[in-house]
C-alpha cells in the first residue's frame, strides 16, 4: 500500500504535469511574469515571497525525496539523487526554467533548483525526522504567504487562478524580481508593466481589489 508521502509526492507530479498541459502559452515568459506580478504589487508581500518561495521548494523536495524510488539509483549517482518523485520534480522545474527563459537567468533558476535539491538530499541525510521538519517549514511558509496576501496584498494568491502556473513560476519570479531590484533586466520589467497594469485594472473592474 502506498505511503502518505508517496501519495502526496506523485499526486504533486501528476497535478504539475496535467495542469501545465492545459496552461495557455506555457513558455511565454512575459505573460507568466505579468500574471504572477499582478498578484504581488505590495512591497511587504513581495518581501515575504522573496523569503519564503525557495525554502518552500526545498522543503517539498525533502518530502518528495522520501518517496519510494521508481528504479534503483546507479551506484555512482546514489550520493546525489534518488530515482523518485523528488528527482522528477526537480527535473521538471529545471527543464521548465531553461525552456521558459533562454538566458543566463533561466540557467540561474535551474541551478538554484539543483542546489535546493542537493540541500534537500543533505537535509534528508542529516535530520532525524526530515519529512516532519520539512512539513513544518513548508506549512509555515504557506501561512506566511497567505498572511501576506490577506494583510498586505488584500487579494487571493495566484494559485487560485492557475495552480501550476503559480507553483512553477514562483521561484523564477522571485529570482527575476531580485535581479530587477539590483538594476538588472530593466527592459523585461518595463515590457511587462503594461500587461500587469491591464490585469490589475481587470481585478478592479471585477471587484476583486
From TrEMBL:
Record GO biological process: sphingoid catabolic process
The entry's keywords: Membrane, Transmembrane, Transmembrane helix
Highest taxon of the lineage: Eukaryota
Coiled-coil ranges (or none): none
Keyword Transport annotated: no
InterPro entries: Mpo1-like
Keyword Transferase among UniProt keywords: no
One GO location term (cellular component): membrane
Stored Pfam families: Mpo1-like (PF06127)
Ranges annotated as spanning the membrane: 47-64, 76-98
The protein, known as: Uncharacterized protein
Native organism taxonomy: Eukaryota, Haptista, Haptophyta, Pavlovophyceae, Pavlovales
Amino acid at each position: 500500500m502506498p505511503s502518505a508521502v508517496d501519495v502526496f509526492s506523485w499526486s504533486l507530479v501528476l497535478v504539475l504535469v496535467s495542469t501545465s498541459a492545459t496552461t495557455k502559452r506555457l513558455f511565454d515568459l512575459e505573460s507568466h511574469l505579468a500574471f504572477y506580478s499582478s498578484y504581488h504589487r505590495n512591497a511587504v508581500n513581495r518581501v515575504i515571497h522573496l523569503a519564503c518561495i525557495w525554502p518552500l521548494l526545498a522543503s517539498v523536495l525533502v518530502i518528495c525525496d522520501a518517496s519510494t524510488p521508481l528504479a534503483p539509483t546507479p551506484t555512482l549517482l546514489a550520493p546525489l539523487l534518488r530515482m523518485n518523485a523528488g528527482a522528477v520534480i526537480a527535473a521538471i522545474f529545471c527543464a521548465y526554467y531553461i525552456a521558459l527563459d533562454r538566458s543566463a537567468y533561466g540557467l540561474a533558476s535551474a541551478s538554484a533548483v539543483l542546489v535546493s535539491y542537493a540541500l534537500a538530499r543533505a537535509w534528508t541525510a542529516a535530520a532525524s525526522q526530515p519529512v516532519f521538519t520539512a512539513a513544518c517549514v513548508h506549512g509555515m511558509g504557506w501561512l506566511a504567504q497567505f498572511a501576506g496576501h490577506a494583510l498586505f496584498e488584500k487579494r487571493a494568491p495566484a494559485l487560485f487562478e492557475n495552480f501550476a502556473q503559480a507553483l512553477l513560476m514562483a521561484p523564477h519570479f522571485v529570482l527575476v524580481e531580485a535581479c530587477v531590484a539590483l538594476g538588472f533586466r530593466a527592459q523585461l520589467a518595463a515590457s511587462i508593466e503594461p500587461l500587469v497594469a491591464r490585469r490589475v485594472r481587470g481585478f478592479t473592474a471585477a471587484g476583486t481589489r
